[in-house]
Every structure is written in structure tokens, then in C-alpha cells.
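## retry 2 of 3
previous attempt timed out at serialization; input unchanged, resubmitting
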Amino acid sequence: MIGKCAAALLGMLGILCIFLLGRHYYEAHVSSFTEEARPQFFRVLELELVKRKDKAQRVCSNREGEVMSKREMVKDTVIFIRSGAGERKYAIPLHRRENNIEMIPEYRMTQSGILYEYPLEADTVLKAWQKSLTASDFRLSVRVGVTDFSKKETFSYAGDTACLADADSLFSYYIGMRSEVEITGFARGVWYRMLTAGQWAILASLFVFTLGITMCICCFRVVGNRCRACLHRVFPLQAFSDDAAGVSNEAPSSPLLVLGLKFHPDSLLLEGNKGSRKLPPQQASLFLMFANAAEYRLSKAEITTLLWPDGNFNDHSLHAAISRLRKELRSCGDVGILDLNAVYQLRKSINEEFIF
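## retry succeeded, writing output
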């Protein structure tokens, strides 16, 4: 029972390690892809703006926000005066201001005018983005959203839109004075295609190793018994069983005298002052072992090794064999078997209080 619990615990621990290692590989691929995909997406948007305007005229400044003066900074609210609608204010959320591809208000105004006349197409952005990236196992999608002057948003999509709900939003960029154009890139990783052949080999090796160790622990007793049986075949020991027919052939023909008892190995007959009994083969073998042992003592390990060399026994088998021999001895004479914890001893009874 303990071995099976240990095997189950080891198996779960191995599976957990394999899962964590696989997740580490996956997250490393995602991180590497994001580092490459984000700047390429930014570059694609800049090129799309350049294509919509005379290339001799700049439409992007590429200036960092840290070098801008307070006058150049984009405010959180912009004011537009439209014919027929009058003056209107538009609040720009912080995340839109900070993720606009342009930092200078004048260039943002120029980009608003360009995209008003020539809107971005999601398919065009996606194709340019895919072309700029090296081969990857990510399914890419692009969403383009436009907020009009009435603050109504419309969206267009391109790519694997069926799996868009399961995809990870990598980043969103905004264009225009009001940050009214939102372009979001999505990527859905196919995890079983993202790992390299070497990484799959490592995970498979760990799985096979864990499975092998778990099976060895589960089958430890069976394997141990088989190993003992093989050793007994290679290095045979004198062993006896209930159906062993060679006991009388291998035993000496002259009777043995043990503690007042006379045993005839050829006929398995045991004689004493109370009578005589023909011992069964197993009891005869066990009595011979006691007779030939020093001080008539045998350890439990010696008895089980000689009687059951294949290891197919339990504690009940040992106790039953000793009990049967005790019964035969009591019916023939005043000899019993004393249990001394780790060993058994054949001993002559002194009085009626002898403990069998």
C-alpha cells in the first residue's frame, strides 16, 4: 500500500514538472514573439501612413515624449469647430494619448486628415504585418476601429476571426488628433506547434522516465520475487514443499534421534514415547531442518527461504506450517517449538506449562 501511494505521488510530481516545463517553453516563445511583433506592427502603421501621402512630406516625427515641451504636449481634451455643428469638445482617455503612434499634435492632426480621406483597411495591415515577421506558429488577426465625430465606433476585422475570442490582444495603437483610429493586433498561439523538436524530446524523455520509475515502484514486490526465483534457479538451494517427492530419497536411511524422538527419513515416520506419526512432506522437511540446525534453532527467514524459494508465501503460511509441526510433535512425545520472536527453537518440554 505504501509503495502504491509513493508511486502515485511520484507520478503526479513528474506530471507537474513536465507541465511546468512545457508552460515555461510556451511562455518563452510568446515573449520572444511579442518582442518581435510589436515594433514590426508599429513600423507597418507608419508605412501605411506614408503610402497615403506624398512621400516627400513627412507625416511622422518619431520624437520621444521626454524631449517635448509642455506647449507641444497633447492635452486631455481637444476642441473642434465644425460647420453646422459648432464647437465640440472631445475628451481623450489617457491610454489613447499614451499609445498614439505620434507625440506631436501637428502631426496627429495631419494623420487625422489623411485617414479621414483614406481609411486604413484591416486586410492590408494584416498582410503587411505577416510579411514583416519571420515564420511563426501564431495565428494573427487585426481589428481596426474608428470613432466618428458623434462618438460612434465602427470596427473591421481581418485574419482568423473565428478564433478571435480565444486570441490574446498583444497591443493597441491609436492614430489621429482625437486618437480616433484604433488598431489592435491579436495573436493566437498553437501550443503544440510552438515547441521545437528538441523541447518535445526533453518532455517525452521526462515522461518516459517518470512512467518507468512509477511502474518499478508499483511492481517492486513482484519484481523482487521474480529476481529471487531467478537466483534460486541459478544457485539452487535445498527446498521442500508439500508435494515434494524427493525427501525420502535425499534423506539418510538411518533414523535420526532428536530430543528423544526417532525420525525415519525414508518412511517419514516419527516415533516417541507417546506414539508414532507419519509426517506430511512439508512437516518432515521442516523437522529435518530443525534437526540439522545448531541448537535446533531456525530463523524465520531461513524457514521461508527453504520452504518457499519462489517467495510465494505470507505470514499465515509460516505460522500454519509451524502449528502443524507442533501438533505432530505433541502427539509423539514431549517436544515442542518455542517462538523466540525472530527465531524458532525445537525444545524438549520440561513440564505441562511449556508454551507451544
